[in-house]
Design brief:
396 residues; alpha/beta; 16% strand; elongated
Length: 396
């Protein structure tokens, strides 16, 4: 293949020229900002003393203070890190206006760190990204400190009113580890995921709980109810096989249908039989939820019971007892069956939670757990604003 060296050389030259140009622009802008801040510090000192640089006071005038040189201070801006000379007298120093006493970086840089964190970037990765832009390495601890302002956002999220417009509610819990003085401890977060009839969705709430008990879930669901999710439009609640959650749903949202997750149920069936029977049990159980209608599903269960009653009577009895809640999705529009028979949608969110939290090994405290979860949920909700689930849109 013939190569056009002149074209390649021009492309290389163009790239180098562009980089050199913007490098010069950035350097000159940094230099101008440094001179402006130092001039502001000098002017403040001159106004304070009543004397310009190298100007002497009259012999009869009483001097309130005297110059005492300067000290250097690094300040991180969106343009990079600059070192400025801060003027001082024997009694006080004169920081340039706009820089607070303990501030080492511009508010724009701190906000950039918080926004990167909210968009799902880990604390370590945020530090590396900011370092590329500002030439200052930012530690994970610094990122965590700067994101503590999100505690107010977490509280606002947990108290925000909820419109009573959700048609489907997915509920599940996720366990995370927290570092305590007496050693690591597991913390349970209960999570609610809502879908409207038009397919728009949102992670609605999360809260800490001691266990997935009926009391814990009732408190969580009652909080949703008090915030506005009364359940008048609620058609179905999808959950795993937690008995406490099932009882709480019956108490708070008794008019909504309850669908138990088939993924969790298949896992329980597999774990409850011998290894040699697992494939056959899975195949027979799949015929139940893959049926064309509820009548065919019940016939598939009858065949399942005929095949496995003798070997696993307790397992078959439990499946028969739970069958009404496992087949509730057949009462919904057929295009939605695949989405409504599992909690896969909320489980995919938990995959991201575990991905973000796995490198941390342990959280220092519960507040840091809530900040991370809020950041992940906020990022999901932002992504979903203009992206509805197509199957629900078609069904509507």
């Amino acid at each position: 293949m013939r190569r056009h060296y002149s074209t390649e050389q021009y492309a290389v030259y163009k790239q180098e020229a562009t980089e050199e140009f913007w490098g010069q622009v950035r350097w000159r802008t940094q230099h101008a900002l440094q001179q402006m801040l130092e001039a502001d510090s000098e002017q403040q000192m001159a106004d304070y003393l009543g004397l310009a640089h190298y100007e002497r006071s009259a012999e009869s005038a009483e001097r309130i203070d005297s110059r005492n040189g300067c000290y250097e201070r690094d300040y991180v801006t969106p343009l990079g890190s600059i070192r400025i000379k801060v003027r001082r007298t024997r009694k006080r120093s004169f920081l340039p206006r706009g820089i607070r006493t303990l501030e080492r970086r511009a508010p724009e840089v701190a906000e950039m760190i918080r926004q990167a964190f909210l968009r799902g970037i880990s604390t370590r990765a945020v530090g590396r990204v900011v370092a590329l832009l500002t030439d200052e390495p930012v530690s994970a601890q610094t990122v965590s400190r700067l994101t503590r302002v999100l505690d107010q956002e977490v509280e606002k999220f947990q108290r925000a009113p909820l419109a009573d417009e959700w048609a489907y509610l997915l509920l599940d819990g996720v366990w995370l580890k927290v570092r305590r003085a007496f050693g690591p401890q597991r913390v349970l977060l209960l999570v609610a995921y809502g879908v409207r009839a038009d397919g728009s969705r949102q992670l609605l709430a999360f809260t800490r709980a001691r266990a997935e008990s009926q009391a814990g879930w009732e408190a969580f669901l009652w909080n949703l109810h008090e915030r506005g999710l009364a359940g008048r439009q609620l058609q179905m609640v999808i959950s795993d096989g937690c008995p406490g959650l099932a009882a709480a749903i019956e108490t708070i949202y008794p008019r909504a249908r309850h669908q138990r997750c088939w993924v969790h149920k298949m896992r329980n069936l597999r774990d409850g039989v011998r290894r040699r029977d697992q494939a056959a049990v899975k195949r027979d159980a799949q015929r139940i939820y893959l049926a064309r209608n509820v009548a065919q599903a019940r016939r598939a269960f009858a065949q399942f019971r005929f095949h496995w009653q003798a070997l696993y009577p307790a397992l078959v009895r439990r499946l028969e007892r739970e069958l009404p809640e496992l087949l509730a999705f057949f009462e919904m529009p057929q295009p939605l069956w695949r989405k409504l028979r599992t909690t896969n949608a909320i489980e995919r969110c938990f995959v991201e939670v575990r991905r973000r939290t796995r490198p941390m090994v342990l959280f220092v405290n519960v507040a840091s757990v809530e900040r991370i979860i809020y950041a992940i949920f906020h990022n999901f909700n932002q992504q979903w604003q203009n992206r509805a689930l197509s199957l629900f849109t078609q069904a509507a």
